[in-house]
Amino acid sequence: MRKDYLLTPGPSAVPADVLLSMAHPIFHHRTSRFQAVLKETLARSRRVLMTENPVAIMASSGTGAMEAAVANLASPGRRALTLEGGKFGERWGELCDAFGFEHEAIKVEWGRAVDPGIVEEKLAADNSIAAVFATQCETSTGVLNDIEALGKIVSKTKAVLVVDAVSSAGACELRTDDWNVDVVCVGSQKGLMLPPGLGMISVSPKARALVEATENRRAYYFDLVKAMKSAAKDDTPYTPAIALVIGLNEALKMIEEEGLEECFARHRLLSKAVRAGLEALGLELFAERPSESVTSVRLPEGLDGAALVKTLRDVEGVAFAGGQAALKGRIMRIATMGYCGKYDVILGLGALEMALAKAGIDIELGAGVRAAEEVFLKG
Ligand code: PMP
What is the CATH number of domain 16-258? Predict the structure, then answer.
């Protein structure tokens, strides 16, 4: 018998209470019973995203929320900046291309963070820029971009700041209103501890005004004016993913019971322990500005990294993520997001140590685990 562990940066593990909350018979959504659940879920969503802006919940993955943002903001004569330091930053560029949103891509070497100073220069040089599309945690590289700094810069201009927080919401600090983030896009299957299937989006008054001024908005299901009108009434324009919304309410309740600041602190500690463990094994961390929800690490030269990740998952039952695109086989990514505690980290490092030793890499067994334990003992 093999026991499986999910340490991938989405989907992530789902707590039993959340799973059980979704196992009830389905009831109709146009009822006071569902509206009470939705009202509570939307209020919790706003608190967890630290915003007073309306939040809409959609039946899509995180990319649906990103598509909603681009489709509703693309308008003739407007330009955008897409901050592209990995696969998900590049997705902003691809979405802009798909919706005819003229954009300039600020390309950042994979593994590095976006330099907010460059964004400031670009905004100063071109006042047709209406939106800046950023990624908080670039999951493909494990980099956490400085959203607070970007918010300070973008809020001084007429442009809106749109942030992909798919792999950071509920794990990394994101103070939507304090940091002047206009649009936040989230998916359910990461820090929010749900199965895949929900997208969420928050929209500031500044972004809402821009959306309302968009010419020929090319969205129907993802129409943000409709979505925001419904959200303001604690409703959804179309049939909501009832079971997932019930699960989201339960998951958000767990985050609130832990305390949002405590939840951020837990992710900081978990990722610190992962980094300490990897470094104690002599491995080199990949991200210049590491995220607290996913840690990327270079694999030793000459090692077949893709095979290592596959064996760990398919034979040992411990699922990590490998590298994407040009990083395939060269890095490995270990998630600490959502339903994750210190013994997940210790288990993950133990499995990695054994796999590296089996692959003939010269490491000291137990060194990574010990370093992580020391971080936890210090707190
Ligand atoms: N952005 C980021 C930062 C992500 O990590 C992901 C999922 N890996 C996405 C967007 C896309 O989300 P989904 O797969 O839920 O559409």
Answer: 3.40.640.10
Q: Is the peptide bond before 54 cis (omega within 30 degrees of 0)?
A: no
pTM score of the predicted model: 0.98
Distance in Å, CA 323 to ligand 1 centroid: 15
* Pairwise CA distance, residues 343 & 345, whole Å: 5
Ligand 1 centroid to residue 360 C-alpha, Å: 34
Break the chain into its structural domains and give their ranges. 5-10+260-378, 16-258
CB neighbours of residue 204 within 10 Å: 22
Task: Please tell me the distance between residue 367's alpha carbon and the centre of ligand 1 in angstroms.
Answer: 33
Q: Indicate the fold that domain 5-10+260-378 takes in CATH.
A: Aspartate Aminotransferase, domain 1 (3.90.1150)
Backbone angles phi, psi at 300, to 5 degrees: -60, 140
**5-10+260-378 and 16-258 have identical folds:** no
Of all protein residues, the one whose alpha carbon is nearest to atom 12 of ligand 1 is 62
**Tokens describing residue 352:** 């990695």
Q: Which of 60, 63, 91, 184 to mutate to test the pocket of ligand 1 (most atoms within 8 A of CB)?
A: 63
Q: E-strand spans in 118-164?
A: 129-135, 137-138, 143-144, 160-164
Q: For residues 351 and 309, give the distance between their C-alpha atoms in angstroms, rounded to a whole number.
A: 11
**pLDDT tens, N- to C-terminus, the chain (379 residues):** 899 999 999 999 999 999 999 999 999 999 999 999 999 999 999 999 999 999 999 999 999 999 999 999 999 999 999 999 999 999 999 999 999 999 999 999 999 999 999 999 999 999 999 999 999 999 999 999 999 999 999 999 999 999 999 999 999 999 999 999 999 999 999 999 999 999 999 999 999 999 999 999 999 999 999 999 999 999 999 999 999 999 999 999 999 999 999 999 999 999 999 999 999 999 999 999 999 999 999 999 999 999 999 999 999 999 999 999 999 999 999 999 999 999 999 999 999 999 999 999 999 999 999 999 999 999 8
* First-to-final CA distance of the chain: 35
Radius of gyration of the chain, Cα coordinates, nearest whole angstrom: 21
